[in-house]
Amino acid sequence: MKKLYSALTLGLCALSLQAQVIDEAYNQKIKEFTTDTKFLPSSVLNLPIDTKVPSPLKHFGTIIGAEGVLHRTSEIYGYFQKLTETSPHITMQQAGVSEEGRPMNLIAIGSKETLKKLEHYRKQLALLADPRKLAGQDVSKILVDSKVIYYLNGGMHSPEMGSPEMLMELAYRLITSQAPDIKAIRENIIVLINPVSEPDGWDKQVDWYYRYSKARKSYDDGFPKSPPYWGKYTYHDNNRDGLQISQAITKTIYKIYYDWHPIAMLDLHESVPLLYISTGTGPYNETIDPITIGEWQVMADHDMTSLAAQGLPGAFNWAFYDGWYPGYGIWVANNHNSIGRFYETFGNAGANTYLRDLSNQKYAGDAVTSKEWYRPYPATEKVNWSFRNNINYMQAGVIASLSYAATNGQLLLKNFYQKSLNNIKKGTDETPRAFVIPKNQRDPAMAAYLVNQLRGQGIEIHKAESGANHGDYVVLLNQPYRNLAVSLLTKQNYPKEAKFPPYDDIAWMMGYLYGVTVTPQDTVKYQLSDLKMVANDVKYVGEIKGEGSNYVLPYKAQNTVLPAIYWLYSQNKDAKAVVLDAKTTVEGLKDTLAAGSIVFKGITAEQAKQLTTQFGVDLQSTKTLPSVKQHEIVTPRVAIYHSWYNTQDEGWARYTFEQRGIPYTSIHKDMLKAGDLRKKFDVILMPRMRGGVSDFIHEIDPKFGPLAYTKTNEFPSHGMPDSTPDMTGGPGFEGVGQLKKFVEAGGVLITLDNTSMMIAEAGIARDLKVYNAPTLFHPGSVVQVKARQKEHPILYGYPEVFYLFKGMGPLLQTEKRDRDMMLLQYGTKLLKEDEEYKGPIMGMPNKKVVKTLDNQPPKKEDLYVLSGMVRNEQTIIGHGGIFNVPVGQGRVVAFTFDPLHRFLNHHDAPLLWNAIINWNHL
Predict the structure, then answer these.
(1) Using CA atoms, how far apart are residues 287 and 281, in angstroms rounded to an integer?
(2) Which residue(s) pair with 355 in the sheet?
(3) Under CATH, which number does the domain 638-834+856-917 receive?
(4) pLDDT tens digits for 793-845?
(5) Does domain 44-422 have CATH number 3.40.630.10?
């Protein structure tokens, strides 16, 4: 009887398999382009033939992952459009638009019945996201009547080229296959796919591949793997925009999240052999719910187990990043009670096959080829790796992850609801119970900006409508995103004893980054009836007080002052803005004006009003002009320099200038070599660039030249946002010489972070020397600084002691005799060598010796780290933050930090604006 039963079972299985025809031609091509059977999981074979829906092979004439074949964004969306026309299991809609105008499309996949009820399931998840809306309802019924939405993100980093291609094949499989696991996915969950989340960069990269990379025979030959630009502004940092929400890619991902509330989001990256499944070494972000951390582990182990069962080597978790920084794009999920995950598969930056050497790759101290508890089946030191291998690994992992969601839907939905409930309970039972953004601020426009940024994160904010605190903004913490509010508004405590270095910045406290006072409240000191929910973005509108035709702006390093001046001069050729270079009082004005305050002359009352409404500054009108020492502002002609080998931070600089409304000209090596810089510009800004002085001088190796980055009919995406007939060679010594001539002729060269070291070592600012602090470990943290030249124009608007954001940039120093060039220092204590000598002096026997007490505990005002962590901070205390170095008739203003870091540290940016406002008075 047992034998008969087994025979019947096998027969039924065979009939089931025969019910759908397998595309053997596709199967054979997969095997052909896979370099080793070890790299061929069974879950990616047996793609079916559908009589109505075209496979990638039928549509394109090649399978996905074919050697030497990639598809542009329009072709990818064209295929998805064909799928929507031929299958009831898939839809496509536009979710956003890129900076260059390309559509950003979202695909939804599910059963026919599910897609008919998409709006219903979206509403169900929105309810579970906010348990306050479910008061009195039976949550168990809502859970049963809900479906997990699982989001897949492809193409974020343009040279990581597997995911946009793989997702086409996956979509075809999900809508056509009758295999039990695929049917379960289709029927039990909703799969969202954003196949090309950075379409501008993807098309640039595909053009780059066909223009240059496809002909390369070796992966490690030094040739650039990607074009100089991906998006219009951001390169790799398009995955570091989750706190700013400034780029189209991030805005679109956030919109998708709020529209759909996906329970899980999986971001598909490439860099690590052979497949890394995110969990992280820790330390984990302090505010992430423990449920999420558990889900990271369970889902990663499930995926690893599935891959192990198919015999795939080289899959691992744990040892790649930490899980601390909340600003990655996909962390919109972790920050909002969903599950944010990512893969790193092994990619070749194109569709070529290369012999890859893994022998020098280490993560968490272990060779990637070593067998560990988190990597039970490592790869060999060399692997012959193809594009199809990458597709296989990525797709097998995704299928495993979707299968987990399809079979554990109720658990995932319940956890999602529970995490939202936990937030509300914490906000009700624990302290603080609220954050207050008081009405009175140093820069009220930035306080309004903070409110809008918090709203962009889905955090609810109220405004006090009456009473003594009328105008204050209040964040009540009994809300579903309480943990995120706490994360963004309190200090970060990265542990000094962490075993592995952090993956990225470790501090992001928005009050510090924006220069806005934020006060926690353990007891809410407002009548709830006086608080009104902020329903739209807010804008600070300044006031004009007093009488007279002259207008005074009390300067407190407000971010909008420089753009206001540029705007005013463009509107009124008779307008003058004058900076007061000493504190003074003016008749009719109650408060003393600090040095740096600005007087506007020759402007109309309407223009003064526009300054308050458009730029959010407060003005005081007066009939009496100050007679104190002052200088007129002459708006400079500003250039922003970019290299061709590293455009990331130059992109952030351009973005910041454009957002602020500050005009500039973009220049590169060819303009330096052309000379006559002083005739064209007054100020040249050199944003942070990676590498050393040799990288700056020589850039891309000339042996690869000529290397054009120009728009052509064949490569239409190139030449944006800048172009050149040859990227190689750099400015060379000739260009460096021309840059030095610019400064010597009276120009101002402003260098940020690493470029300050380059300019010092190139001999343009010879008075600056690199200072080595080998034991200093300074990941991105908020630290305290002190003015050394507190009356200098670059420090106008700041107190003597304040804070700023600093990362791992190099330090510079001068000879002791030139310390007056140091405008700002790290920490509040002097360098030991700069302390006044108080001992006896031979030859001066009557000099009084001052005795000091050693080993005194540090005073609170002497704290260095305010948020984050620095190891061996004593090695940086007293060293320079900003230097003002005379060179001929001009100046080099060298920052050893980046005041334009990722459009985040707005509090620090006015130090740069001050240098531009006062460029001819430094």
Answers:
(1) 16
(2) 384
(3) 3.40.50.880
(4) 999 999 999 999 999 999 999 999 999 999 999 999 999 999 988 889 999 98
(5) yes
